[in-house]
């Protein structure tokens, strides 16, 4: 985007747009899935978040629903939500500021028009597993590859794409999951349901890594990983296995 011609909007600038209204179904989905994440024990205080994009005729990138800062996904209710645009983070509906992580979510949505939901969590086991010296987690299950469909992208602890979104463009097309050392993870989905399913399978795979590595350290056995070739096959056939109705509609 050419900064010389871009409007001088500020992040969290209140620019109410009467043509943008809360969709009751999107609001209901947001609160439902936010509370589902919390019920699984994946929410830590007010950190982390979720955005859902919806199409709008006046906004080329659509608009997105988000929770405000200072409120956790566990606490959020329908009346708390805000709607922002995607390029600038202007608040189009609602009256509270978004978190710093919202700029990361918006940049992902801007660069990935196929993605309509982003979930970012400070997941305990992911942070702990990588802090224990493991470079990455490996897959032990059939479900992970079919659901995630692209390799995870690992960021070093020195890079925080919540504060500086510039690096995102260098890798986001090739992944549906960003692993952030000492921070947590960010998962992408075409729908809020898919992003939630990918989040659930990711945390399960991290848990399996901890269990398998612990058991093998005790017994002296070698872990049985899913191979890269198997993961590539799963990625290619993921929709046919997990979402056959989607494949049928596309065909």
Automatic annotation (TrEMBL):
Alphabetized SMART domains for the sequence: Aldolase_II (SM01007)
Listed transmembrane segments: none
Domain Class II aldolase/adducin N-terminal: 28-210
InterPro entries reported for this sequence: Aldolase_class_II_sugar_metab, Aldolase_II/adducin_N, Aldolase_II/adducin_N_sf
KW Lyase (keyword) present: yes
Key words, A-Z: Lyase, Metal-binding
Gene3D superfamilies noted in UniProt: Class II aldolase/adducin N-terminal domain
Signal sequence, renumbered to the chain: none
Domain of life of the native organism: Bacteria
Record flagged with keyword Metal-binding: yes
One Pfam family, short name: Aldolase_II
Record's protein name: Class II aldolase/adducin family protein
Native organism: Roseomonas alba
